[in-house]
Amino acid sequence: MGLWLVLHRLRQGGLERVRDTPSWEIPKGGSHPSPRYTAGMGGRVEWVLTPLEQAGVRYLVVGGVAVVLHGHLRTTLDLDLVVQLEPDNLERALTVFGDLGFQPQVPLPLRSFADPQTRETWRREKNMTVFSLWHPSHPGFALDLFVQEPFDFDDVYHRALRVPLEQGQATVVAREDLIAMKRAAGRARDIEDVEALLGLSEDEP
């Protein structure tokens, strides 16, 4: 599958910091890039994120999609999400994923992800980092949900950015937190992403 996220143009300013309440604030100085995207972004990401937004789900876009949304063009075939694992929030998220038609890649019920003991067993015994979902109408597209919050969710959510898409917005992990995640993962592609993210601004994270 070819490149489905294409960065069309960057302009300065416009990204908004997430606050503790559902209000948004443009960061001072406008130092973060605000991308505009082609139909590929709306077709492959927005159809998932918009229902989450409408359901009031607290989530963060991380991984390769977050790298692209911060302004570095690269290929990615999945959408990585850190969903806050608080029971009510997770219930809303799983309802959205089920209504959209997502199914686990492993032969397990979607709702098994809601059980904290089950997630801990996956993490401890199977070394599982993400719970992967697929969609019968979107072959090649994977939705990866972190089985454990890899950071203090409230702190990172407070620093997150609201990135405009074609018709809505995405809540994206801040650049400094994305870099920290990539450094911790340490794979070759992650190191490349770190270098690219650092090159997007003269400011060190």
What does this structure look like?
- This protein is α+β, with helices and mostly antiparallel strands and 205 residues long.
- It has a single domain (31-198), classed as Beta Polymerase, domain 2.
- It is 38% helix and 22% strand.
- The protein has seven helices and eleven strands.
- Strands 5-6-9-8-7 form a five-stranded mixed beta sheet. Strands 3-2-10-11 form a four-stranded antiparallel beta sheet.
- Strand 2 (16-18) and strand 3 form a beta hairpin.
- Helix 6 (175-185) runs antiparallel to helix 7.
- The protein is globular, with a radius of gyration of 16 Å.
- The termini are far apart.
Task: Give the arrangement of secondary structure elements.
Layout: E1 7-12, E2 16-18, E3 24-25, E4 33-37, H1 39-54, E5 59-62, H2 63-69, E6 78-83, H3 87-100, E7 103-104, H4 116-126, E8 130-134, E9 142-146, H5 153-159, E10 161-164, E11 169-172, H6 175-185, H7 188-198
Parallel strand pairs: 6-9
Antiparallel strand pairs: 1-4, 2-3, 2-10, 5-6, 7-8, 8-9, 10-11
